[in-house]
Amino acid sequence: MEASRPNFVFIFPDQWRGDCLGKDDNPIIETPYLDALASEGVMFNHAYAAAPSCIPARACLATGQTPSTCGRPGYRDGIPWRYEHTLMKELRDGGYHTMCVGKTHFYPQRVRLGFEELRLYDPQEKLGDVKSDYHRWLEKETNGKVKDPAIEWNNNTWMRYSWEADEYLHPTNWTTDNAIEMLENRDPHRPFFIQIGYHRPHSPYDPPKYYYDLYKDKELPPIPVGDWAKKENSREIEEVDSFRGELPDYLLDRMRRAYYGSITHIDAQIGRLIFWLKKNRLYDNTYIIFCSDHGDLMGDHLSFRKVTPMEGSARIPFIIRTPESKITGKRTLPVTHMDIMPTILEAAKLKIPEEVEGISLLSALEGKDEKTRTFIHGEHSFVSKNMVEGWQFVTDGKEKYIWESYSGKEYFFDLENDPNEMKNIINDEKQHDKIQLWKNLMIDTLKERKEDGLVEDGKLVSGRYAPEVREYLCK
C-alpha cells in the first residue's frame, strides 16, 4: 500500500541554460514535455545558481546553504563532501526511500550523503580508480566498442561530436532506463525521493543524429556580444576548453545546434519518465521538480562554459509541479538551489535543520509571500593556470550588479530592457543612485564574512577573491 505522504521526482540536468525552454517563450527550443509540465506547475522565471559551476551548485542544493557557508565558493575537484545534514539524509531518516541515478559530482564519487541507492554516471575518471555504473554497463553491453565522448574527449570543449551508436546506449537513455527500473523496484510501503542527474546537455555536445537534425535548418538568433565584452574578451582561442575568445562562426553554429539537440533529447526522455509515472498511478501524488545546476555561455559575450554571473551562465530553468497539478503559473520571486531542500522537507512534513539558509517555496507556489526574498547574492571564485577571477553578483532577475573582486571591474545591467546584457551601464550617471543601492546590498552581505577581507570601512576591496585566504581553494 502506497504511503500517504507525497513522492518527489527531482530532475537535474547539467549545464542547461535558463532561456532554453520553449515555455520560456523561446521559439528555437523544442521541449514539448517540459512545456506541458510547466503548464501543470509553476515556473520561477528569476532562478539563479548562487555559484554557477557543477560542484558548488550541487553542494548548495544538498545542504540548503549558501556557497560560502557550505564551503564551496568556487570549483575544485577532490574535496571530500562531509555534511551533517543533507536533503537526502533528512528524507531517508524521515522514512523516504531515497534513490539517485546519473551524475552527482560528489567526492569520493560513491559517497551517498543519504541516498540508499545510487547508480552512477561520472566522467571524472581522473579523480581515482572509480568507473561509474554507466561506463561498466557500456563496456559490457558493447564489448568495449562504444565509447562515451565525455571520457574520450575533453568534456568542457565547445566541439560537437556525433553519437553514432544506437540511441539506447547514450548516457541520457541509460539514465532514464535506470530511473524507471529503480522506481519499479522501490519499497512500495514508503514514499520515495529520486534524483535523476542527466549529465547532458553538458559538453561534449553529442546528441543522437535525429535530435541534431531537428535543428539543422533552423535559423538561429545572433549570439549576444556586448560592446563591453568585445573589449574584455576578444582574444585568440588557444585551447578547446578556453573560457574566452573568438571562434569561427561555423564552429559556434555546430555547437549551438548540438546543444539544442541534446536538450530536446533529454526532454523526450523526461516525457518517457512522466508517461511511466502516469501509467503506474504515481503522477498525481508526486512533486516533480526540474532545474539545472547552471547554464552554458555558448559564445555569449565571447565566453564559454560557465562560472560567470552572466545570464547564460548563472540563470537556470526552475519548474515545480505539485501533486494533482493544483497550482500553476509563473512567479517572479528570485530563487536558487538552496531553496529546494526546505521546500521538499516542508512538503514532506519533516523538520528543516537550523543550518539551512534557503527558504521554502510552498507559499510562493501559491502566489503568496512574493517578497520573502528581494534578491539573490551569488559568487564564484576560480583559479587556473592562466586565470584568476572572483565574481560577486546581486540580482532580482530584473537588475543585476556585478563586481569582479580581483580586477575591481564593475557591471550593471537592466535585465528588463536589456535581457542579453549588451550594455554595461555602470557609468551611467542617471543610474547612480540605483547602482549604489545594489552595491550596498553586496557590501552588507560580504561585510559579515570578515575572513574574506572583501569589505573594509564599508567599501569593497579589490585585488582579492573570496576564498583567497581559505584552505578550500589554496591548499
UniProtKB/TrEMBL annotation:
Keywords: Hydrolase, Metal-binding
Coiled coil: none
Record's signal peptide: none
Example of a GO cellular component annotation carried by this entry: cytoplasm
Domain Sulfatase N-terminal: 6-348
Gene3D superfamilies the record matches: Alkaline Phosphatase, subunit A
EC number: 3.1.6.1
Superkingdom assignment: Bacteria
Enzyme class: hydrolase
A GO term for molecular function: arylsulfatase activity
NCBIfam families reported in the protein's UniProt record: PRK13759.1 (NF010322)
PANTHER family (UniProt xref): IDURONATE 2-SULFATASE
Designated name of the protein: Arylsulfatase
Record organism: Vallitalea guaymasensis
Organism taxonomic ancestry: Bacteria, Bacillati, Bacillota, Clostridia, Lachnospirales
